[in-house]
Amino acid sequence: MNRTYHSLLLAGVMTLAGTETFAQTQGQTQTLSPIRIEVPAPAQSLTQPTAEQAKQKIEQVPGGVDLVPAEEFRDGRAATLKDALDYVPGVFIQPKFGEDSRLSIRGSGLARNFHLRGVKLLQDGVPVSLADGSGDFQEIDPLNIDYIEVFKGANALRYGSTALGGAINVHTPTGRDLDGVLTRAEIGSDGYRRGQIAGGQHGADWDAYATVTTIQQDGYRDHTEQNNLRFNSNIGLRLSDRAETRFFIAYNDIDQQIAGSVSRDQALNDPRRAAAGNLALDYKRDIESIRLGNRTSIALADGTASFGGYFVSRELIHPIFQVLDNTVLDYGVFGEYETEGQAFGLKQDYVLGLQLGRGTTDNLRYTNVSGQKGALRYQSEDTSQNADLYGEARTWVRSDLAVILAAQAGYGTREVEDKFLSDGDASFDKSFTSFNPRLGLLWQAAPNWQLFGNLSRSTELPTLSDLSPTATAPIGNVDPQTAVTLEIGTRGSQGRFTWDVAVYRAWMKDEIQYFTAANGQSYAQNADSTIHQGLELGLDVRLLDDLFTATGGDSLTLRQAYTFSDFRFDGDAVYGDNKLPGAPRHFYRAELRYDHPAGFYAGPNVEWVPEAYYVDNANTTETASYALLGLKAGYNDPAGWSLFIDGRNLTDERYIASASVSTTATPASAVFEPGFGRAVYAGVQVRW
């Protein structure tokens, strides 16, 4: 499947969508009367819960979860997943290049020096991550978000995630969220330009939403130019008062250059310069994809049934040490049934679900000739399959105390059929099974706050690249990593305080770590025993009220997110009890914000890493501590328009945002990713 095919398919989809919109518009011109208003659309969608509905549901999870509404990050620059998740404790997400980031939850995937492992990304319940568990961030558009659900660790059971990091599910808007037109424009430093146009409409038994966004920027560093176009849409149809189906259509065309990792000295003293090898070989990552999905929900007499399917076609052209040319097809089906009842006089509710997914990759690699394809160096047909069955039973042993029993059974395969045999046969066919039970307690101590705890097991299967290294290493010689995690915490609000706190400890076996071979390439290998433990603290404090208004209504609020991470080997034969590299021990974000009832807001913010962290298993080389100061201000007019100005790193601090990891490193090792310098962004949004 190539870009021409994608373009033709997208044109057909948009033509059909345009035909539907024209038909609805023609019908609407005949009914623009008071009668039209007397037949409003249903108050809510059955297939896309509102943020408030999702919040009520997520707060019944006895563990670390979070819900981030779009309003929390659309008041400033909204270009990356970091912009959206900056204030979620336990989530470490730092920029690498363009919109790419290093993402880890509770230390997941820290040894992964490229792309993503250990967190399942979804959009509207449809996987963005590949079937083998790897993934990218660029296909998630922060301007196409209604709210984000974050499920840490085994709390992501119902989304089919068995990984240490859990899952992130992005919910997109519908025609019930936006009934009209929205336009937005952002500009800023380093040639940053971003635009959006979105439209939504609904009737008594249908709704439709579509948005197109673009982003272009020269980039803070050399060789980080990007030019991206995204289209997202969905159409919901009410089949009856109790049934609704929704179709999702998305298209992404993403072109971005890669500056690469550099030495510690260059990262701190010459951060704009790209790595020499990246310039010589014209490192890039270009993606074109189409995503189709459907979800149908039926309200039954005793519960709710939901089911659907998805199909994703993705074309990747990726000049790095070789030119990767991958055509990826991912598809699957899912179903879930929820019900409430009683047993032995106790209130109970149950969830039972099944997810089936499959992915195939036509994997080609060529000699990199200044970013262009040279001779064919590798070819294979890669296949991943997953089947996950999960169930959960919640029993209220008292009106304020619930016991949760849950389990997930999984089966997965990873297969590579080597079709380039002149250098040997690297084929393999591996299968894995897993069983992950979970016990949780949820105590509603008061109407506005609760205590929770859980004990769970998680299993993370190796990705295809883990099993088929480019370095000199055994093929298919990586086992799944497992963890037993104990977690306790509390969330709620009281007076001026709103909090979300979790403490956890994970005892891990066979954690998938990356090691460096003699040829300089990295390969995956299982560690023996490791420990991940930490504290996740979100705390908002309404410090002052009625500062400058005679009638009241203004406020000064301190918003904070602190993550303490202690990840280490546990009696390893080589590394003893050394710290695991790749993430800071302390990470703090805070914003002091003033809000006026007329719509004005302003305040400074800070990002603080007070202690350097290691970049190698041997614990010989560190990053550097840093503190970043920002300032954001804006105005939201009741008439439907808004504007903002967003200053980042205003002191122009030289810092290391993230780092790749290795077995042993020196300050000269090219593993450091420079952070972005001083930048200012401004934007305006109009809705009518």
TrEMBL record:
Pfam families cross-referenced by the UniProt entry: Plug, TonB_dep_Rec_b-barrel
One Gene Ontology cellular component: cell outer membrane
Keywords: Cell outer membrane, Membrane, Receptor, TonB box, Transmembrane, Transmembrane beta strand, Transport
Membrane topology note: Multi-pass membrane protein
Family affiliation: Belongs to the TonB-dependent receptor family.
Natural source organism: Oceanibaculum indicum P24
GO MF annotation terms: siderophore uptake transmembrane transporter activity
A single BP term in Gene Ontology: siderophore transmembrane transport
Main location: membrane
InterPro entries hit by this protein: Beta-barrel_TonB (IPR000531), Beta-barrel_TonB_sf (IPR036942), Plug_dom (IPR012910), Plug_dom_sf (IPR037066), TonB-dep_rcpt-like (IPR039426)
Protein name: TonB-dependent receptor
Location of the TonB-dependent receptor plug domain: 58-167
Boundaries of every TonB-dependent receptor-like beta-barrel domain copy: 222-650
Subcellular location: Cell outer membrane
